[in-house]
Design brief:
CATH class of the largest domain: Alpha Beta
CATH architecture of the largest domain: 4-Layer Sandwich
Distance between the termini: 13 Å
Low-confidence stretches: 457-462
Number of domains: 2
Largest sheet: 7 strands, antiparallel
Strand content: 25-35%
Number of strands: 23
Bound molecules: iron/sulfur cluster
Strand order of the largest sheet: 3-2-4-1-10-9-11
Structural class: alpha+beta
Helix content: 25-40%
CATH superfamily of the largest domain: Aminohydrolase, N-terminal nucleophile (Ntn) domain
CATH topology of the largest domain: Glutamine Phosphoribosylpyrophosphate, subunit 1, domain 1
Radius of gyration: 22 Å
Number of helices: 18
């Protein structure tokens, strides 16, 4: 998971990009970068490790001048967490400079990389995004859109891309549309963003989502759309976990409000798995809309029983084990006034290793809860994601090798229930579970864009 922002035709393009990246910070906290472009001048690039607010000072932003800009926030799915892997990447090609920012994951990266190396390519990073750059550079097609098409024909997996040249800003979504990408406007300028929350921050207006398998080219003449592949009827496989957890609830995505989708997941969960309880609480922040939905459908009042400190990163997204281990205590504290003597329903979006949930149950009991019933607004996570989400390997996923009852015992809950896969699909308006329009591979193991070979899997760094 990463976030991208591209701006075409605004006198303060880099500053707007910087603000947009702030609104996408939840999509990646390892590194960030901006490339800015001025007609007939070399691109300017500034990248670094850490949070957007730490990387871009006044001087850096002043250097990033020009009416066009491209930005990226990163966490790693392939490639180590090093500055060299920070995006956007920038290269000089025979046709001029090119910058590229990528959200997703190429599952056949190792095979394509090896093939390119045999053809003379020299790689400087461990990132799958660099593979895309080399494929673009190798193509002899005259138009950038055609070079993108040629590159896309050689890769499998998930990619929402934004590319910047001195004459165009280009947005691409893979044919299955795993990751989001939006087209918007700020005044006369065009904007491409991962989530509409970034558009809201810069007071932009939404035009539309880029369609799965679409290439959108923005130039001074306007917006031109064409197909990446000539199969407009291929079913989308948008990431359902974006709606469960990753995206911000104030974003609009895959044709719906993220908040409303999560609220409905909570309502479904209450109908499928009721509990005799006095209070509904959420694991903040991502569990809040589903907890409100659970409370609404069950009639049990919602109260803020857990408080999150916003001054530390999210545990799931932080790849370093050392931080994750003590992260729960840093991040969550219990409100005794809400919990003491109460039977508590706790709504969370997912259970990954189970260690966090176990610690949360302990925190709640220590604060006086007499019963703790855990309700999860996604089905058991049994399979890793190969399409751009940094989930653990399968052997680390507690639900991969344990029954729901065993997971409940491990986390020491009085009861544990997950929403059904059918209930989840219904919550996002996807009623055809036999032919779903959302990817659910981390729950079902149905990898519609293929899984990496052993060689590529070994290269995925978690
Ligand atoms: S496997 Fe899960 S997290 Fe990955 S794209 Fe599919 S639904 Fe999203």
């Amino acid at each position: 998971m990463c976030g991208v922002v591209g701006i075409w035709g605004h006198p303060e393009a880099a500053k707007l990009t910087y603000l947009g990246l702030h609104a996408l910070q939840h999509r990646g906290q390892e590194a960030a970068g901006i490339v800015s472009a001025h007609p007939d001048q070399p691109f300017t690039r500034h990248v670094g490790r850490g949070l957007v607010s730490d990387i871009f000072g006044k001087d850096a932003l002043a250097r990033l001048d020009g009416p066009h800009a491209l930005g990226h926030v990163r966490y790693s799915t392939t490639g180590l967490s090093e500055t060299v892997n920070a995006q956007p990447f920038r290269v000089k090609t025979a046709r001029g400079e090119l910058a590229l920012a990528h959200n997703g994951n190429i599952v056949n990266e190792q095979e394509v990389r090896t093939d390119l190396e045999h053809r003379g390519s020299i790689f400087t990073t461990g990132s799958d995004t660099e593979v895309l750059l080399h494929l673009l550079a190798h193509s002899r097609a005259p138009r950038l859109a055609d070079r993108i098409r040629e590159a896309a024909a050689q890769v499998e997996g998930a990619y929402s891309l934004v590319l910047l040249t001195d004459s165009a800003l280009v947005g691409v979504r893979d044919p299955s549309g795993y990751r989001p990408l939006w087209l918007g406007r700020v005044g006369e300028a065009y904007v491409l963003v991962s989530e509409t929350s970034a558009l809201s921050l810069i007071e932009g207006i939404q035009i539309r989502e880029i369609e799965p398998g679409e290439i959108v080219t923005i130039t001074d003449k306007g917006v031109h759309s064409e197909r990446l592949v000539h199969d407009p009827n291929a079913p989308a496989q948008s990431c359902i976990f974006e709606l469960v957890y990753f995206s911000r609830p104030d974003s609009f995505m895959f044709g719906q409000s993220v908040y409303e989708a999560r609220f409905d997941m909570g309502r479904k969960l209450a109908a499928e798995s009721p509990a005799n309880a006095d209070v509904v609480i959420a694991v903040p922040d991502s569990g809040i809309p589903a907890a409100l939905g659970y409370a609404d459908a069950s009639g049990i009042p919602y109260k803020p029983g857990l408080i999150r400190s916003h001054y530390v990163g999210r545990t799931f997204i932080e790849p370093e084990q050392s931080i994750r281990n003590f992260g729960v205590k840093l991040k969550l504290s219990a409100v005794r006034a809400v919990l003491e003597g109460k039977r508590v329903v706790v709504v969370d979006d997912s259970i990954v290793r189970g260690t966090t949930s176990r610690k949360i149950v302990k925190i709640l009991r220590d604060a006086g809860a007499v019963e703790v019933h855990i309700r999860i607004s996604s089905p058991p996570s049994r399979f890793p994601c190969y399409y751009g989400i940094n989930t653990p390997t399968q052997k680390e996923l507690i639900a991969a090798k344990n029954s729901v009852e065993e997971v409940g015992d491990y986390i020491t809950a009085d009861s544990l229930s997950y929403i059904s896969l059918e209930g989840l699909h219904q919550s996002v308006g996807d009623l055809s579970i036999g032919d779903p329009h959302f990817c659910n591979a981390c729950f079902s193991g149905n990898y519609t864009a293929g899984a990496p070979t052993i060689r590529s899997r070994l290269a995925i760094v978690h």
